[in-house]
Amino acid sequence: MSANTDYDTRRCANHPDAEGRYYCSKYGRHLCESCAVCVDPKLYCKFRSQCIIWELEKYDRLN
Ligand SMILES: [Zn+2]
Question: Which among 14, 56, 32 has a CA at the least distance from the CA of 23?
Answer without folding.
Answer: 32
